[in-house]
Specification:
single chain, mainly alpha, 3 helices, about 60% helix
Length: about 120
């Protein structure tokens, strides 16, 4: 009887080992679930990126607004009879300048359209 109990305990221990640590066990199942989750997130990011790229391609095919925007932002191009104005802010010197400075959100640093003098 004692041998039977010892045999059953050893058998249960081996089955538990296989369940928790063996091939196809709970640890491997958890690793696979984590991998599936990561791949799903990566796939969603790629779908969003593809949608944005498709929209860019559609914009470029359908009109000149997207082309003009890219030329202005990436290449610094301007149209004829436009003047590009860039505002460069000087460091604030408190000893010489006592005039109030605009807040960063109020400063204008974007190009503005103006006609060139003739």
């Amino acid at each position: 009887m004692k041998k039977l109990i010892v045999f059953l305990l050893v058998l249960i221990a081996l089955l538990q080992y296989r369940l928790w640590l063996g091939d196809g066990g709970i640890a491997e199942l958890q690793e696979l679930q984590d991998r599936i989750e990561k791949l799903t997130e990566e796939g969603e990011k790629r779908r969003e990126r593809n949608a944005a790229l498709e929209a860019d391609v559609r914009d470029l095919k359908e009109g000149t607004d997207a082309i003009e925007e890219r030329a202005r932002q990436e290449l610094g191009m301007i149209k004829q009879r436009e003047t590009f104005v860039q505002v460069i802010e000087m460091p604030k010197n408190k000893t010489h300048d006592r005039s109030p400075q605009p807040k960063p959100s109020e400063r204008k640093t974007t190009p503005q359209k103006t006609e060139r003098p003739r």
